[in-house]
Amino acid sequence: MATMLRTRPRHRRLVVRNTVAGWTFILPNFIGFAALTLIPVVVLFYMAFTNWNVFGVADWVGTANFRRMWNDASFWTALRNTLYYTVFHIPLTMAAALGLALLLNRKLRGVAFFRTVAFFPYITSIVAIAVVWNQLFSPEYGPVNAFLRGLGADNPPGWTTSADWSMPAVIIVGTWRYMGYYMLLFLAGLQTIPAQLYEAAQIDGATPWQRFVNVTLPGLRHTTFFVTVMLTIESFKVFDLILVMTDGGPGQSTLVLSQYIYQKGFEENQFGYASAISIVLFAICFGITVIQFMVNKRRNS
Amino acid sequence: MKRTMPAAIAAATALALVLAGCGGEDEPTDPNAPVTITLAGWSLSTTPEFKTLADGFHATHPNVTVELKEYDTTNYDTQMTADLAAGTAPDVYVMKNLKNFYTYQNGGQLLDVSSATSGLSGVSSVAAYQVDGKAYAVPYRQDSWVLFYNKDLFAKAKVNPPDGSWTWDDYATAAKALTTGLKVAGAKATGTYQHVFQSTVQGFALAQTPDADLLSGDFSYLKPYYQRSLDLQAAGAQPTFGTANTNKLTYQAQFGKQQSAMLLMGTWYIATLLKQRTTGDADTFEWGIAPAPQFDKSTTGTSATPVTFGDPTGLGINPKASKAKQDAAKQFLTYVASEDAGKALAGIGITPAQVTDAVTQTLFGLQGVPQDDLSRFAYAKHTIKPENPVSKHTAGLQNLLNETHSAILSDSTPLDKAITDAQARAKNEVLNQ
C-alpha cells in the first residue's frame, strides 16, 4: 500500500486532496441546495409529463399537460397579466430606483436617514404592506381617492376593487416596494464612477443632462444589466404580493402565472399540470435572460 | 458533482426506507390491550372540540388514549397532504370540508370505515362521505347556515324581526328598511352584512334552487341570488364587496360590534359569539337566529322544513395505521357521531353531526344563547344540502366560481356575462378534464 502511494505522481494526490477539500467546503451549502432545489427541480421536469396527484399516482401522460395548456383560456389570461405586470413594473422600478439613487448620491445632510427610509418598504412584511395599501386604496374611504377627489377627480378609480384598476394598483405597490432595493444597487454602481470623468465633462462644458447620458449611464451599464435581469425574473415570478393584495381578483384581473401554478397545484392537487406550467414560466424567464445576456455581450463588444 | 451523486442517492434511499418503516405493520389484536391513536386538530388552545372528543371517548374506552397532533388552521389541508404523502400523518384526521375529501379518498388516503357507520342511521350527513356505497369518513360536526339577527337593532329601527316566513325578497326588504330605520334612529349600522365568502351567495343558490346542479356546468341558478346581493350593496343596505375586502372586514366584528343588524353565517358562529361576549370582542345585546331566507314560500313557516346548506366536518382513518390502531380508530369514529359525543360538543357550543332533542337542549342551556322558539326551530329543523358535492371536478369548479363571485360583486363584469363566462370556463377548463 505504502509503496503504491509513493509511486503515484505527487500532483495527482494533490488534485484529489484539493477536490475533497473543495467539496468539503461547499458541502453544507450543497446538501441544502441539492435537497431543497436541485432534486425538486429535476423531479419537476419529470412530473410535468405525468398526472401526479401528490399521493403516488403519477402516470406518464406525454405532452398532454402542454396540449391542455394551449387550450386553457385561464393560462393565457395569467400569462397576459404577468406580461402586463412585467412591462410596467420593470421600467417604473428602474426609473424610480435610478432617480432615488441619483438624488441620494450627494452629500446631503441626513443622507443616511433618507437612504434608510427608501429601503424600508423592502424590509417590511409583505402582508402588512398588502393590508395597509388595500386600506389606502379603499375606493370610498381611502386617502388615495380622497386626495384624487381633492385634485378634482369626480370619479376616482376603484383600485383593488375594480378589474380595470387592480393591476395598476398592484404595479404601484410592487414598484414602491422594490425601488429601495434596486436604488441600493444603483448607489453602489454610482460610487464606482470616477469623479474625474464628471470634472472632465464639466470642463468640456457638458450640461447636467449630457453628463447623465454620457458619463453616468455608460458607467452604470453593468449595474443596469444586473438590475434588468433581476427585475425581469422577479416580475415574472411575482406571487406573494398579488396573493395577499388581491388574490388574483376581482375575477381573474390580477391572476398571474405563479398564482395559477399555486392554484392548480396546491388547491386542486393537479401537480402534474402545475409542474408543466412552472416549466413554461421557467422557459420564459430563461429565454428572456439569455436574450438579455446576448444583447449585453454585443453592446460590450 | 459526479462524485456526490451516488452518495446523494444512497442518502435518499436510506431516508425513504426509514420513512417507509414508519408505516403500518400487522400486530395481533386484543380489543382490550392499551392503544394510543393520534388525532389531527388545529389551534388546539382555542378549538376545544378535539380534546372534548378525545376525553369523551377515553371515558368510555379506557384502554384507548387519543393523542392530539396540532396543525395550522389555514394551511391544514396543505400540511396534511404533505404528511400523508410522506407517511407521517396521524392515525385519524379531519376533513375540514367536502372539497378536499375527494382528493384524500381518490388518492387512497382513507380507510373504508363502512363498519363504523352501521349504527349511525340517524345521521344524515354520513351519506356525504360515501363513494360507491362505501363510507370513507364519519361526520362529527354538521353546521348549517342560518340568519343571525340583532333584536336590539331591529327594535331601534322599528322593523319586524324575522318570524320564519321570510323568502329572500322579504329579507332584502327588511335589510333596506333596517338601514333607513337605523339612520333615522341615529345609528350607523347597516341592515345586513354579507361576508366576502362565495358561499354567502352560491351556497344558498345551489341548495335552494330546484334542479340546481354544480356539476352540470349550468350556473343560471346563481342569477337571482346575485341580483339581490348587487341590489342590496347598491342600496347601501350592506357594505359593498370592495369595502369588505379592502378594509378586511370580519363578520365577527361586523355583527358582534353591532355594525350590521343581520348576518348570514354558519352555526359555528354561535360558539364564537358566546365567547366573544365574555372577552369583550363582541357587545352584549339581544340576538336570535332565524332560518335562512328561502327560495319561495313552499319552504317557509315553522310548519315547513327550511332548506339551507353546510358541509359536514368528518374524521377519516389513515390506511397506514396498524391493524390495532385501525380497530380502535373505528370505535372512535362511531363514538364521534353518537348522541353522547353530540351532547359533549353541544356543551361547548358546537353543532354536532346529529342534532337530537337532547343536543338542542344542551346547546340552548348555555349561558347567552337566545331562548325564543324561532331560534330553537332554526337550529334544530332544516334540510341541509352539501355545498360541495363530492366529485373530481368540485375543487376546479369552486375555484372558478370564486373568481366569478369577485368579478360580479365588484361590478367588474355584468352579471349575465360573468355567468356565461363561468359556464364557458367550466366546460373548457374543468369538466373536460
What's a concise summary of this model?
The complex is a heterodimer of chains A (301) and B (433). Chain A contains 14 helices and no strands.
Question: What is the element layout, followed by pairings?
Answer:
The complex is a heterodimer of chains A (301) and B (433).
Chain A: H1 2-7, H2 10-47, H3 64-70, H4 73-103, H5 111-123, H6 126-137, H7 143-150, H8 166-191, H9 195-203, H10 208-219, H11 221-236, H12 240-245, H13 257-267, H14 271-300
Helix pairs in contact in A: 4-8, 4-11, 5-8, 8-11, 11-14, 13-14
Chain B: H1 4-21, E1 35-42, H2 49-60, E2 64-71, H3 76-86, E3 92-95, H4 101-106, H5 114-117, E4 130-131, E5 134-135, E6 138-142, E7 145-150, H6 151-157, H7 168-184, E8 190-193, H8 199-208, H9 223-234, H10 241-246, H11 251-256, E9 260-266, H12 268-279, E10 287-290, E11 307-309, E12 312-317, H13 323-336, H14 339-346, H15 357-364, H16 373-380, E13 383-385, H17 394-409, H18 415-430
Parallel strand pairs in B: 1-2, 8-9, 11-13
Antiparallel strand pairs in B: 3-12, 4-5, 6-12, 7-9, 7-10
Helix pairs in contact in B: 2-14, 6-7, 8-9, 14-15, 17-18
Task: Describe, in plain words, how this protein is organized in 3D.
Chain B: Belongs to the bacterial solute-binding protein 1 family. Chain B: This is Sugar ABC transporter substrate-binding protein. Chain B: It is found in: Cell envelope. The complex is a heterodimer of chains A (301) and B (433). With 301 residues, chain A is mainly alpha-helical. Chain A has helices at 2-7, 10-47, 64-70, 73-103, 111-123, 126-137, 143-150, 166-191, 195-203, 208-219, 221-236, 240-245, 257-267, 271-300. Chain A has two domains: 2-47, no CATH class; 72-300, MetI-like fold (Orthogonal Bundle), CATH 1.10.3720.10. Chain A starts with a helix and ends with a helix. The model of chain A has no long low-confidence stretch (mean pLDDT 88). Chain B has 433 residues and is α/β, with parallel strands linked by helices. Chain B has two domains: 33-143 and 311-354, Periplasmic binding protein-like II (D-Maltodextrin-Binding Protein, domain 2, 3-Layer(aba) Sandwich), CATH 3.40.190.10; 145-308 and 378-430, D-Maltodextrin-Binding Protein, domain 2 (3-Layer(aba) Sandwich). Helices cover 44% and strands 14% of the residues of chain B. Chain B has 18 helices and 13 strands. Chain B has helices at residues 4-21, 49-60, 76-86, 101-106, 114-117, 151-157, 168-184, 199-208, 223-234, 241-246, 251-256, 268-279, 323-336, 339-346, 357-364, 373-380, 394-409, 415-430, and strands at 35-42, 64-71, 92-95, 130-131, 134-135, 138-142, 145-150, 190-193, 260-266, 287-290, 307-309, 312-317, 383-385. A four-stranded mixed β-sheet of chain B has the order 8-9-7-10. Chain B has a three-stranded antiparallel β-sheet with strand order 3-12-6. A two-stranded parallel ribbon of chain B has the order 1-2. In chain B, a hairpin with a 2-residue loop joins strand 4 (130-131) and strand 5 (134-135). In chain B, helix 2 (49-60) packs across helix 14, helix 14 (339-346) runs parallel beside helix 15 (357-364) and helix 17 packs antiparallel against helix 18. The interface between A and B is large, with 43 and 40 residues.
